[in-house]
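Most newcomers find our protein records easier to grasp once they have seen one. Sequence and backbone structure share a record, each on its own labelled line. To make this concrete, we reproduce a full record directly below:
***
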Amino acid sequence: MILISHRGNIDGLNEAYENAPYYIDKAINCGFDVEIDIWYINNTLFLGHDIPEYEIDSEWIRNRIVNLWIHCKNIEAIEWFNNSEFDCNYFWHQEDTLTLTSKKYIWAYPGKQPIKNSIAVMPELYSDNLSHCIGICSDYIQNYI
């Protein structure tokens, strides 16, 4: 089972720290992959959910690439990753039932399970049936160990 921290959260929602670089590193150091939100604005990468908050560079991504599930927050971010040298796992979605990541994982919106071989996002919100998924992305990811 692939266990993915949602924006760095591992034991509950903490909006004050979500997408902060040190918070993401903390989740990775606990053994989890992390779904992060990335913006690309004026040739600069930023982490942040609703707004670009934390400036990062490509080296930051390179050093964590195997653990990142990158949610592109604007079209420019999708274009940047699509044209980059990195073999990243990135995607775009809003309220779609599902989307396919660049590494061909099915990323399923909360409440849409069971979907065979998918990543269940926030399954605790709707008590999703996890019998067919291959991964979970959650604010409470340590509860799924």
